């Protein structure tokens, strides 16, 4: 079956099933089972043994996968404690005294979204809780708030050096790099991918531009006009027994201690090397654990000493937070497993041979990855599920080219997945953004769709340009300039 088109069957089945069923776990499981059957001559007993072994080996990998699972649990616990403490309410009270204009309210929401880069769920819900009373006071529509929340959640998490998203993506990359003999540190590789992620960067730039010019188009314009005619806005109670520091210290300690652990594991304190070299040579998986553990201890101790929460409730909120991560861990396990199955089927060899033969033009690989990833994410509502399917395929497809081409393909996958996620009405991040803004979900989807398609269209053009060999920094600059010019025209036309 090696070097046969049939080796593509498992990933194709996973993608098609994801589009049809909109169930990521079921779709990944289907691809895994089909791949296992193909590798074992369709013998059910051999397949069961193979898949059990592969799953256990993937989850129990002490170098990367197991630490990532531990970090997800720790992060869930921190989010659980912070959410239960209602520290976001205290921050809202503090910020309400300092934000005086609509523009200021929107830009403050954008800035907070940029700072809450650890996790998109935490981002949408916490920033929404903080800013909703303020944007209400400034007569910013709930639809506009939901758009800003959504556009500063996934796009920020996918380009931030420390986040659950990056931990997930790097875990898949690490598996594939090892499997295909790519001698790259996953963290340093991810840093190199960031400027290729055109959609995420363009989406963030567009939020700032829309906030500054104070104009809108499409359904969002109608929502803003209706809000401006409103005679009264419901204000929420923004008092709390907690303080701003109950939010700042847990998140700040997590970020700071993780970064400190990274330069420590990279040898900065034991060798005469630069900070950048230490980061690129770090052990990001264990650094996340070290940072997470210390942040948990600091948060637990602070809440207990200050009596922010009763001792029993601190522990209960930590456990409840960990429980919310179980779905993520299941997707992770399946992502690692289907990556192993695809590797055992030698999909990389088959695709690389086709590309080398010129059957698939190399210049079309980035834009193809972008479009397919957007379609899968839109259909499934899951960026992470799309990453688990498309990252191994992107690496296998682009490995025949130079390293920069692998980065271009991966950047296209990450950007396309976030675009599809933004446009999808069944996306959990879209739903949480609606919840964070206390906005009708359908209204959020309808108003955000045109706002997502604008950066999506220019990111598509950028993927084509980088595919033909134009420097990615030049492409990014041109795409930003062209998008802002387009927005200037369309906003002044309406």
From TrEMBL:
Residues 156-467 form the Na+/H+ antiporter NhaC-like C-terminal domain. Keywords: Cell membrane, Membrane, Transmembrane, Transmembrane helix. Its main location: membrane. It is found in: Cell membrane. InterPro entries: Na/H_Antiport_NhaC-like_C. Pfam families: Na_H_antiporter. It comes from the Bacteria. The chain crosses the membrane at residues 12-39, 64-83, 104-125, 145-168, 189-213, 247-264, 285-305, 325-347, 359-378, 384-410, 449-467, 473-491. GO terms for cellular component: plasma membrane. It is a multi-pass membrane protein. This is Na+/H+ antiporter NhaC family protein. It comes from Proteinivorax hydrogeniformans.
């Amino acid at each position: 079956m090696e070097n046969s088109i049939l080796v593509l069957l498992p990933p194709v089945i996973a993608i098609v099933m994801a589009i049809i069923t909109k169930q990521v776990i079921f779709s990944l499981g289907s691809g895994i089972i089909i791949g296992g059957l193909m590798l074992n001559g369709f013998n059910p007993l051999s397949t069961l043994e193979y898949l059990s072994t592969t799953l256990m080996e993937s989850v129990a990998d002490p170098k990367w996968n197991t630490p990532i699972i531990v970090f997800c649990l720790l992060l869930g616990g921190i989010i659980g404690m912070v959410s239960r403490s209602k520290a976001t309410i205290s921050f809202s009270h503090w910020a309400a005294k300092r934000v005086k204009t609509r523009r200021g309210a929107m830009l403050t929401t954008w800035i907070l979204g940029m700072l809450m880069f650890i996790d998109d769920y935490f981002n949408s819900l916490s920033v929404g809780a903080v800013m909703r009373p303020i944007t209400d006071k400034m007569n910013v529509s709930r639809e506009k708030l939901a758009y800003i929340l959504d556009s500063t959640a996934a796009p920020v998490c996918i380009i931030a050096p420390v986040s659950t998203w990056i931990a997930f993506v790097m875990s898949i990359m690490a598996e594939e790099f090892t499997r295909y003999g790519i001698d790259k540190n996953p963290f340093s590789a991810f840093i190199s991918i960031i400027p290729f992620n055109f959609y995420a960067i363009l989406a963030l730039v567009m939020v700032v531009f829309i906030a500054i010019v104070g104009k809108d188009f499409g359904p969002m314009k109608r929502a803003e006009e209706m809000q401006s005619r409103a005679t009264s806005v419901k204000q929420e109670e923004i008092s709390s027994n907690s303080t701003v520091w109950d939010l700042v210290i847990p998140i700040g300690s997590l970020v700071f201690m993780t970064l400190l652990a990274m330069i420590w594991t990279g040898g900065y304190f034991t060798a005469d090397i630069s900070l950048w070299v230490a980061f690129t040579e770090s052990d990001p998986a264990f650094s996340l654990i070290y940072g997470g553990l210390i942040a948990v201890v600091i948060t637990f101790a602070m809440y207990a000493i200050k009596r922010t929460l009763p001792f029993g409730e601190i522990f209960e909120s930590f456990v409840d937070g960990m429980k919310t991560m179980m779905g993520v861990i299941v997707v992770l396990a399946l992502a690692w497993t289907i990556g192993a199955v695809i590797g055992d089927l030698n999909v990389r060899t088959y695709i690389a041979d086709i590309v080398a033969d010129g059957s698939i033009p190399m210049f079309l690989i980035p834009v193809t990855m972008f479009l397919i990833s957007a379609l899968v994410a839109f259909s499934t509502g899951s960026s992470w599920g799309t990453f688990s399917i498309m990252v191994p395929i992107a690496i296998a497809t682009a490995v025949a080219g130079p390293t920069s081409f692998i980065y271009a393909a991966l950047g296209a996958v990450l950007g396309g997945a976030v675009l599809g996620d933004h446009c999808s009405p069944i996306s959990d991040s879209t739903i949480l953004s609606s919840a964070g803004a206390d906005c009708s979900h359908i209204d959020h989807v309808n108003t955000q769709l045109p706002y997502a398609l604008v950066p999506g269209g220019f990111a598509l053009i950028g993927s084509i340009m980088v595919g033909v060999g134009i420097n990615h920094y030049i492409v990014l600059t041109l795409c930003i300039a062209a998008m802002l010019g387009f927005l200037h025209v369309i906003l002044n036309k309406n």
